[in-house]
Amino acid sequence: MKVVIWIALFFGTFSLMEFMAWFTHKYIMHGFLWSLHKDHHHKDHDSWFERNDAFFIFYAVVSMLLFYAGADGWWYGWSLGFGILAYGVAYFLVHDIFIHQRFKLFRNANHWYARGVRRAHKIHHKHLGKSDGECYGMLFVPFKYFKK
């Protein structure tokens, strides 16, 4: 039974992270921490790194703290930490590599889901300011972006 709970917590955490990404993106990144996210919308820097990467680091630290809690005897920490880690890996692959091409991989992906996610993110980046944006999620985007 413990394994079933662990697996459920892992997938539940992964799914919750999509909501957290949407919420953080809409209300924090495009809100009071716009100063950290702004360079992601305005490429006014020569560095490969962006101030926006601080958000990725925040969730990595949360994941590591949960691993530490798991190692210290709170076994839920492992499933929660791995759920956050798995979402972070998915986010990095989809957002940083596939969409923004920080590494030149997956350039010719033409799957309907890949096209929809890329289209939704392009629409999001059409809004250069911190307000009046749309489509703040990453893996789950509105169906209208999957239409041709």
From TrEMBL:
<keyword id="KW-0560">Oxidoreductase</keyword>
<keyword id="KW-1133">Transmembrane helix</keyword>
<keyword id="KW-0125">Carotenoid biosynthesis</keyword>
<keyword id="KW-0472">Membrane</keyword>
<feature type="transmembrane region" description="Helical">
    <location>
        <begin position="75"/>
        <end position="94"/>
    </location>
</feature>
<dbReference type="InterPro" id="IPR045019">
    <property type="entry name" value="BETA-OHASE-like"/>
</dbReference>
<protein>
    <submittedName>
        <fullName>Beta-carotene hydroxylase</fullName>
    </submittedName>
</protein>
<dbReference type="GO" id="GO:0016123">
    <property type="term" value="P:xanthophyll biosynthetic process"/>
</dbReference>
<dbReference type="GO" id="GO:0016119">
    <property type="term" value="P:carotene metabolic process"/>
</dbReference>
<feature type="transmembrane region" description="Helical">
    <location>
        <begin position="6"/>
        <end position="28"/>
    </location>
</feature>
<dbReference type="GO" id="GO:0010291">
    <property type="term" value="F:beta-carotene 3-hydroxylase activity"/>
</dbReference>
<comment type="similarity">
    <text>Belongs to the sterol desaturase family.</text>
</comment>
<keyword id="KW-0812">Transmembrane</keyword>
<feature type="transmembrane region" description="Helical">
    <location>
        <begin position="49"/>
        <end position="69"/>
    </location>
</feature>
